[in-house]
Structure formats: C-alpha cells, structure tokens
Amino acid sequence: MLNRRNLIPALLLLFLLSLFALHLLQYRFHRIKIEPLDGYYLDATKIKFSWKGWFSASYQEAEDQYLNDHFGFRPLFVRLNHQLRFSLFNKVKTAWVIVGKNNYLYEHNYIKAEYGVDFIGYDSISTRMYKFEQLQHKLDTLGTKLIAVFASGKGTFYPEYIPDNYYDWRGSTNIEVYRHYAEKWNINCIDFNKHFINLKEKSPYPLYPQYGIHWSRYSACLATDSIVRYIEKLCNMEMPHIYWDKINMSRPQGRDKDISDAMNLFFPPRSFPMAYPEIKIESDSGKTKPSLLVVADSFHRVIYDLEVLDDLFTNPRWWYYNKEIYPDCFHTWLTTDDVNFEEEVLKYDVIIILSTDANLPNFGWGFIENGYDLFCSQNETN
Questions:
Q1: Which of 22, 39, 96, 308 is the most buried (most CB within 10 A)?
Q2: Which residues have a Cβ under 8 Å from the Cβ of 36 and sit 6 or more positions away?
C-alpha cells in the first residue's frame, strides 16, 4: 500500500503514463478532432522498410521525421510552443515573419522593398518597361489594352513600425524607378502604391491590417472600383460598378489576418477593427463587360475573393505569377505552359499586370518579355 510520501510521485507517474497512452491512441486512431495547422507545410511521408535503408540509416531518419510530423496532438503542441514564444518573448517560429513595433507583422521581402535592398537597377527596369510600352502599343492595335497596376506592400505602407535593427540606410527602390518610366513613356498605369499612401491619414477606415500582409478587403474594394473606372476611361465604355451603402466593423477576418493565422497561435492577437463593405453590383443592362486577364501575385486574390469579377467582366481569368490559371485550377490543374500564349492573349479586351512592390524585381514574371518577343521583336528587326 502506498503511503503519503509515495502517493504524489505515484500519481505523477500515472499522469505521465496516461498522457503517453493518450498520445499513442491519438496517433493510431485520431479519435479527437483537432484543427489542422494553417499555412503551407510539407509533412514527411511514410516509407517502406528495406534492409538497404536500414543499414544506410536512411530508413531510420525518414521514420524519425515521419513520427515527428505525425505524433498525436502535434498541432496542439505546435500552437502551444508558438504562443509561448510570441506572448513571452515577442518571437515567432515562422521563418519569414518579422515582428515589428507595436506587434505589426511583416514579411522580410516587404521590408527589403521599402529600403531598396532588392533594387534590380535602372537598366533592368528601363529595359522591362520599354518592352512593356512596346507591347502595350502593339496590343492596342490588336484591340487589347495592357495596364500596369502597382500595389503598396506592408513595408512601404507602414515603414514606421519596421524594427530599428534592420537597415540604417535607404537606397533607390524598384517602385520609384518603375513609376518614373511609367510616367516618362506614358504607360497605362494605376499606382495604388502611391495612392493608398496618400490616403493613409485621410481614410476613415484602415487600408492595411496589422496582422495581415495584403491590402485589406476594404482597400481591395476601393482598388476594384478604381480599376473599373480606369478601364472605362481608357476604353471609352460604360461598365457596371460595385458600390456599398453599409460597412461593418469587426475584428480582422480572412486575409486581414493571414500572417497571424500562419503563426498558428492558440489565441489570435488583438488588433484594431477592420472595415467590411456589404458589396452590391449595379445592373449591367446597356453596359459593357470587357473580357479580362489579370497576371498577378497574391494581392489579386483579395480582389478575387470579393466574388464580383464575374459581374463586372466577361470570362475573367487570373494567371497567378504567370503560371497557374484560375479559376480553372480550383477544379483541374491548368498552367500557362498548357495553353497557346498568343491565342490566349488575343482573347481579352483588357490585360492587367498587378504586383506589390515586394515582387517588382520579377514584375510580369516573364509575361512582358514573352509578349514582346512574340508580338514586337520581329517588327523591330524588319
């Protein structure tokens, strides 16, 4: 019989054994439903046993990695670890996340874009924008309008919250030079980078979130309305518009908290409320809905998620980083390598190339160069 002296150690041992048994049961049967981790990660796959792998130790290494990625209650322990690091030490486990002042969250690439660390040089940008201008002119003669759209990045919009220990200098930035050549060569361009920074102190609602990396849903609504009106003027047509007469304020939702979601915390950090317009669409009776192709990074996903493009355009398509084709890829995998570039380009009345400043080193992701080589280079050599 246990005396009082041995009771506590025995109970502690029983508790630990129970936890171990519960972990094994969860690993084997998954009876307790646990919300999976957010963000992109690649779990190790289980490999078959082989004597060759055993003696080379590759099997043991693979099995160890598999068990580490699949042990019972792993998402709970990961979230606990991340929550303690963030709450106690203001640190994050996610490699690409930077905690700024007042807990504003950044990705490193957006800080590099603000300070010009990723600057690709005047020659590279002037060459690309020259090809853009030539392609714009050629496509215009073929009935297609080409438009450049620049979006503000988190570092450009909130430079005041970037940690002091990152860079102590600021050089030329890609967005400044792209803007220069767009103005110099009369390129069709919507500069939301400059526009939203100018609106920052005037807007009645937040334009960029504290814990998200993209522009806010409210900003996406403003951007969509501005794009429609720009196309109307450029193409001399009247299109249906989006509008709203009610805006709901709430804690950040969806992509307005995409960085904090990817941090996999137990408790979402507190932030200021964000604006969510209740979007309505004007009747398209007697109005034109041009066909649209958008070649863009993930900033276009916020616009896409408004679910209004089909009401404003005919057959809108999105080439994600000039590679994956949406909405097709939501159902059947389709990439730009699977289609005829010339035929696809000439299908559309309007083509937009949209990028945030962090992606300007690769602006167009090859679309501009491919289009120039196909439609313009032969004319220059003749």
A1: 308
A2: 75
What single DSSP character describes residue 50? -
Contact 305, 365 (CB under 8 A): no
The residue-averaged pLDDT of 90-98 equals: 75
Alpha helices in the chain (DSSP H): 4-29, 51-56, 58-70, 74-89, 108-115, 122-141, 154-157, 174-184, 192-199, 217-235, 258-262, 299-304, 309-312, 341-345, 367-375, 377-381
Asked whether residue 382 carries a pLDDT value surpassing 50, the answer given is no
**Longest Cα pair distance anywhere in the chain, in angstroms?**
101
Give the Cα separation of 161 and 108 in Å (integer).
13
Q: Distance between CA atoms of 341 and 293, rounded to whole angstroms?
A: 12
39 and 264 in contact (C-beta within 8 Å)?
Answer: yes
Taking only Cα atoms into account, the Rg of the chain, rounded to an integer number of angstroms, comes to 26
Residue 366 neighbours by CB under 8 Å, 6+ apart? 322
Q: Residue 254: how many CB atoms within 10 A of its CB?
A: 16
Distance CA 211, CA 158 (A): 12
Residue partners of 198: CB distance under 8 A and separation at least 6:
none
- Average per-residue pLDDT for the chain: 86
Q: Rounded to whole angstroms, how far apart are CA atoms 368 and 253?
A: 35
Q: Where are the domains of the chain?
A: 113-381
Burial 127-140 (b: 16+ CB within 10 A, else e): ebbebbbbbbebbe
Give the burial string for 216-244 (b: 16+ CB within 10 Å, else e): bbbbbbbbbbebbebbbeeeeeebbbbee
Digit-coded pLDDT (tens) for 122-165? 999 999 999 999 999 999 999 999 999 999 999 999 999 999 88
Residue with tokens 């429609």: 228
- The DSSP output letter for 107 is E
Residues 114, 345: Cα–Cα separation, whole Å? 33
What are 176-190's pLDDT values in tens digits? 999 999 999 999 999
The set of residues, in sequence order, having a beta carbon less than 8 Å from that of 152 and lying 6+ positions away, is 192, 193, 196, 197, 208, 215, 356, 357
Q: Token pair of 318, please?
A: 């999105």
